């Protein structure tokens, strides 16, 4: 099997496993990359890339390659180094991911480098499962081997999301 994009496994409260990663290599490498993810046990892929990034990175066929391997493909486009535009869309995606992880499925969340947007979404996923924002960011950073998220605004968004969840409980 071809060695693909490195998967950074995050501990969570579910029977399934969560990985954070950079985007797969595109073009001629894409099929091998997706095969590598499938071989690692990934069942669901959440891409945070924008349509423009998909084109420029030669990843326009990512969804079809993922589906051809029998995996689920989800998208939540967030511009690079920015924050989500909709709490509602993030909450809906997190609910789906939580359900998949709770049923023992393995999920990968990726953006361009696997730091900013992926870190934000993974941290929010941990927050929805009872961790405070600081601990969630610390856990994702430790798994990723680099401080997440990428920008101050992304960190503020995680804190805001955690505060909203706390206020609705």
Set out the fold topology.
Blueprint: E1 8-10, E2 18-22, H1 30-39, E3 44-47, H2 51-56, H3 62-68, E4 72-75, H4 87-102, E5 107-111, H5 116-127, H6 133-144, H7 152-167
Parallel strand pairs: 2-5, 3-4, 3-5
Antiparallel strand pairs: 1-2
Helix pairs in contact: 5-6, 5-7
Describe the structure.
The structure is a single chain. This protein has one domain: Protein-Tyrosine Phosphatase, Chain A (Alpha-Beta Complex). Strands 1-2-5-3-4 form a 5-stranded mixed β-sheet, sandwiched between helices. β1 and β2 form a beta hairpin. 47% of the residues lie in helices and 12% in strands. It is α/β, with parallel strands linked by helices and 169 residues long.
Mean pLDDT: 97
Q: How many separate structural domains?
A: 1
Indicate the CATH class. Answer: Alpha Beta
Q: Which class of secondary structure composition applies to the elements?
A: alpha/beta
Record field, number of beta strands: 5
- Rg on CA atoms, Å: 15 Å
Shape designation: globular
Helix content: 40-55%
| Secondary structure tally, helices | 7
Question: Low-confidence parts, pLDDT < 50 over ≥5 residues?
Answer: none
Brief summary:
The protein has 169 residues and is of the alpha/beta class.
Record keyword descriptors for this entry.
alpha/beta; 169 residues; 5 strands; five-stranded mixed sheet
């Amino acid at each position: 099997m071809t060695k693909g994009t490195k998967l950074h496994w995050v501990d969570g409260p579910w029977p399934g496993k969560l990985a954070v990663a950079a985007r797969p290599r595109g073009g001629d490498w894409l099929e091998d990359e997706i095969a590598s993810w499938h071989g690692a046990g990934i069942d669901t892929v959440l891409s945070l890339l924008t349509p423009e990034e998909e084109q420029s990175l030669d990843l326009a066929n990512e969804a079809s390659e993922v589906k051809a391997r029998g995996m689920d493909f989800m998208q939540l486009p967030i511009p690079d180094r920015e924050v989500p535009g909709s709490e509602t869309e993030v909450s809906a995606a997190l609910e789906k991911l939580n359900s998949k992880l709770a049923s023992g499925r393995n999920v990968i969340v990726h953006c361009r480098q696997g730091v900013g947007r992926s870190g934000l979404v993974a941290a929010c996923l941990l927050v929805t499962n009872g961790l405070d924002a600081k601990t969630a960011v610390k856990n994702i950073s430790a798994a990723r081997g680099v401080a997440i998220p990428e920008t101050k605004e992304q960190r503020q968004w995680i804190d805001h999301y955690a505060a909203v969840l706390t206020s609705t409980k």
